[in-house]
């Protein structure tokens, strides 16, 4: 399982998460990802999605469950997530949520954090906060040292920005942790599919 998780790309993770919602073919996956604007997080093209699905099938994370053909349209193979694929989603999110050195992966992990229990997400994001606080201290120390040595500000612009970004991330994370700790903050799968979700699935199949 570890090897499969290590080889899992952000797009692969999002494909597995989609299939957790129900069986679908790659064309529907592409349309859903675009409708939900998930292409903000990963590159979504026909080539990358079909290639990713094929790789996930070789890894045993998805399985073919049927082939549909409507009218003059080409055949569409439908896939389902396997138990190994569902576990891989959770393991990947667990690995990426606390890390501060992989921002692209963190965005995807955060988008799929609802696949874990609330208490576990709080713990993982708490670990991330600890790492961010340490990074902020190191940046501030390095910035002060550079200024103390007379390094001109023009050479410290990137450091200055990095320091500001980490500070902003900490502020945002503190707010999120407080919200997640509130029992009224909805978490976990919805008991029934929403009308919006059903409408998206219907539109994506067309």
TrEMBL record:
Residues 15-90 form the Transcription regulator PadR N-terminal domain. It comes from Microbacterium insulae. It holds the Pfam family PadR. This is PadR family transcriptional regulator. InterPro entries: Tscrpt_reg_PadR_N, WH-like_DNA-bd_sf, WH_DNA-bd_sf.
């Amino acid at each position: 399982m570890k090897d499969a998780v290590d080889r899992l790309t952000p797009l692969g993770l999002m494909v597995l998460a989609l299939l957790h919602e129900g069986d679908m073919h790659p064309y529907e996956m592409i349309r859903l990802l675009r409708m939900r604007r998930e292409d903000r997080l990963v590159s979504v093209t026909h080539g990358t999605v079909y290639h990713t699905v094929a790789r996930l099938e070789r890894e045993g994370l998805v399985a073919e469950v049927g082939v549909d053909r409507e009218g003059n349209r080409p055949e569409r193979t439908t896939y389902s997530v396997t138990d190994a694929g569902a576990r891989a989603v959770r393991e990947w999110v667990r690995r990426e949520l606390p890390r501060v050195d992989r921002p692209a992966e963190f965005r995807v992990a955060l988008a799929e954090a609802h696949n874990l229990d609330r208490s576990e997400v709080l713990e993982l994001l708490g670990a991330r906060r600890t790492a961010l606080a340490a990074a902020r201290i190191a940046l501030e120390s390095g910035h002060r040292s550079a200024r103390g040595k007379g390094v001109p500000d023009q050479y410290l612009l990137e450091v200055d920005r990095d320091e500001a970004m980490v500070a902003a991330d900490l502020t945002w994370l503190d707010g999120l942790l407080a919200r997640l700790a509130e029992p009224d903050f909805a978490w976990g799968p919805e008991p029934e599919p929403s009308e919006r979700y059903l409408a998206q699935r219907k539109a994506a199949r067309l």
